[in-house]
């Protein structure tokens, strides 16, 4: 809007209402092209920013050549002193406007470039907002939203549809409500100075804790920069009633949303960790888990990567029977574009072998599209589980052989099984972004190096392996059911009124309207079972 307002200088008949309508049109176009990604839009309009800076430099050189070295007198701080001495109040009020001062000659070319540069600056603000929201979500300080990665090469290029359209509506309402560049300029000044002060404080913390600079130097840095910024900030605070109050209210609402979400999420996670089922209880229940083990596979979705969630105990007490095989599935996103299918799942046993319980971490890259058909997902998961069981049996067999004979050749064969050609080391039979096929190939090479017939222990191990694989196939033939547990939190009756208000209403509203942490794929309702559970905090 500041750039479009230049029309009133070039064309006297242009009214403020027309400036507002043109600004609204520019805003709609700006936010509509955000979905194409930073790189594509930046390639189209990025050179305009270079032209803008060149224009400013060229105008400055032109004025310097035209008026001579007299313009350098503006750098003399004595004029600031005289200005404040003659008009102290007016000088103090004008400090905020110093952030927005600009120059021009050659009106129409500069006007055109200024509008393009303003659009680019607005895009930078929107892109920065996307990044801040993403980082806040990763830290558990903002409700989960749909995030679209627009580049396969750079992880930081993202697009958040909800935030994009929310910003559009907010900007349109702001421009239409005020419609004055002076009021919007006041709001911009308080936002800019707020960012500057926050940056100074954060740099001070870094200087103390990370760089470990002498505290005297740090105090000098903080006193000088923060003192100057507070002086300017006190100036723009005088114009709060002229439009800046909108930004303060907006910031307060955003802060409350982030604080409430972080507070509620932290309470929920701590409660789930404290109330998770102990291994002693699972051992007391036995391999039948204190109920009937019906044929089939149950995929229990949860967000814990360690331990048995309390929601599983709710399944045991609610359902008349539980499946003969249980797999706890936890979905995690890793900072790589795409995770290969053969590296998608990481498995680990839960409880002894007779329990037939496993933990699975399903890893997805930020460009992976989680739209597999549920049957494809099940097939990939079962195949990965069978590979894990075979690899586990092979490692146990090799460990047993090493205990019996410590010959150097056998130790070398064992090391080849545990270390892949690319240097990836396997811990507890779980590879980290490596190819499963290399283990099977190396294991076969290691087995052919032994000419001795299989021992009785190896025969028993092979039979045990075949029995477990057969058990998995029969369980899959009986069907796969997705067990989803929805945990909710409520404040206890003896809690403070504010805590009840925050947890039972505000946090509950945010949780109800945020994006689910786990997706159900394209699972039909006949294969889906959901159980709710409420935690009292």
Describe the structure.
With 537 residues, the chain is α/β, with parallel strands linked by helices. The protein folds into three domains: 1-179, no CATH class; 278-371 and 479-537, no CATH class; 379-450 and 457-472, no CATH class. Helices cover 58% and strands 11% of the residues. The protein has helices at 7-10, 16-32, 38-67, 78-86, 88-93, 107-138, 161-178, 181-209, 215-237, 244-274, 279-285, 310-318, 374-404, 408-418, 436-448, 456-478, 497-513; strands at residues 148-149, 158-159, 292-301, 321-333, 345-349, 357-364, 480-490, 528-536. The protein has a six-stranded mixed β-sheet, with helices on both faces. Strands 1-2 form a two-stranded antiparallel sheet. Helix 10 packs across helix 17 (497-513) and helix 14 (408-418) runs antiparallel to helix 15 (436-448). The longest helix is centred in the N-terminal third of the chain and has 32 residues, at 107-138. The chain is elongated. It starts with 6 loop residues before the first helix and ends with a strand. Mean pLDDT is 78; it is low at 405-451.
